[in-house]
Amino acid sequence: MKKILDETNILLNQTIESKEEAIRLTGKLLVENGYVNGDYVEKMLEREALSTTYMGNGVAIPHGTEDAKKEVNHSGISIVQVPGGVDFGTGEDAKILFGIAGKDGEHLELLSKIAILCSEEDHVKKLLEVTSKQELMALFEEEN
Asked: Nearest CA to 44 among 12, 13, 22, 59?
């Protein structure tokens, strides 16, 4: 069984110009690593058009629409660190992006894990300060 979070699902120290680019990048990681089919990325953009996936505290959680579930092969998370931030149209910049894809209802569990990890500003700050994928994975696993 495929791990939900793998080093290949993480990008550190990225510079991103737009919300669309940010969503495409988080989705691309999920596609490249076999978690979702290519159409899932468009469903992530559709979902964002309905309402922002910016959650506050510098965190955005782009994910697909309800009808995107058929595009999901395995549950997975992609994480993109954007120290300079990217405008999600909310007046605040997202600095940590979690792309998620849940199979068989697991998306709620994934959201819960991310919410717990990012509920404290200190944890978000730590996620922004890590310099290796291993450090980021350790932080994620420590909280879950």
From this structure: 22
Give CA separation, 80 vs 34, 43, 66, in Å.
17, 19, 23
pLDDT digits (tens, 9 = 90+) for 38-58: 999 999 999 999 999 999 999
Look at residues 130, 126, 100 and name the one whose alpha carbon lies nearest to residue 112. Answer: 100
d(CA 23, CA 90): 15
Q: What is the pTM of this model?
A: 0.93
Task: Spell out the domains of the chain, with CATH numbers in brackets.
Answer: 7-142 (3.40.930.10)
In terms of DSSP H, where are the helices of 4-87? 19-32, 39-50
Q: What are the angstrom distances between the C-alpha of 110 and each of 11, 100, 122, 135, 136?
A: 19, 7, 20, 19, 16
3-state helix, strand and coil shares in percent for the chain, rounded to the nearest 5: 45, 20, 35
Catalytic status, residue 63: yes
